[in-house]
User: Fold this.
Amino acid sequence: MKKLVLASAVAAAFSTPLAALAQDKSPHTVTGNVSLNSDYRFRGISQTFGKPALQGGFDYSHSSGLYVGTWASNVYGGSTGQSLGQVYNQGNMEWDLYGGYKFEPIKDVAADVGVLAYFYPGAKYPASAIASFNNSAPKYDNTEVYGSLGYKWFTAKYSMSTTDYFGINNTTVGAGNTAVTGGCGITSSLTAGAVTPSTTCAGINKGGSKGSGYLDLGATFEIGNGFNLGLHYGKLSVKNYGLFNYSDTKVAVTKDWLGFTWTAAYVDTNAKRDVYRTAKLNGGTTSPTLYDPSKSTLVLSMGKTF
Assistant:
């Protein structure tokens, strides 16, 4: 589920501002970005069932430090019939809006504070995950506030949800398919209605997940011949739902070539496989295609800024 402000910031670093072409000293900067990716990994978890993603966005910034932007990507919208699993039921798009303020509190230290809203048009939690499903079923939409500090090659960022974390609450996964275990994950040998043992179930009466947090530590180094090395460590903590907690890592190599930014990134997590596993139904629940979106993978991408 982006991330997004980080992706836009990286893209902006290699961009040529449209406004600057018209007036070198203009306080306004507008940039755009587009990329093709072999997978869309958000905080280490695939959002596209391991399939390619087309992504893009626009950013506006002012010399005062204020900025706003938007970004979008395709996501996997199939249905598993389970309350857990990485899927955006009935939706196939993520659309983000964000804004914030960048400043330098002390020399050589870059600070950034802002808010980011994630939307999934048409996507709602599946009927089997909710005791009384109706047209007002809960959505996956999420809003976070964030703050970051950067010094030379190192950046530390923390994001905190001001809503239930991507819809996780008592209604969507805290009550789930039974009144005993709450929402459960998906076994590696899924049959109709099968769920994992209670150790991989969310439990009941857990409340909401507002206040969940994600710590993002990153470092970037020049390694010669136009190549850059990026290192990332992230840790997700979902309030009241420790079942969803995990850490993720990424090692990326980036180079500008032929007018594009090329990236190869190795991504890995220690997320609970049964919880994040997704089942793609091939015309029936007895022969699904299972996919673990948390497993390690190599993500390749090419991007362009303008």
The domain at 4-305 is CATH 2.40.160.40 (Porin). Helices lie at 4-13, 18-22, 170-174, 273-276. The chain is about 10% helix and 45% strand.
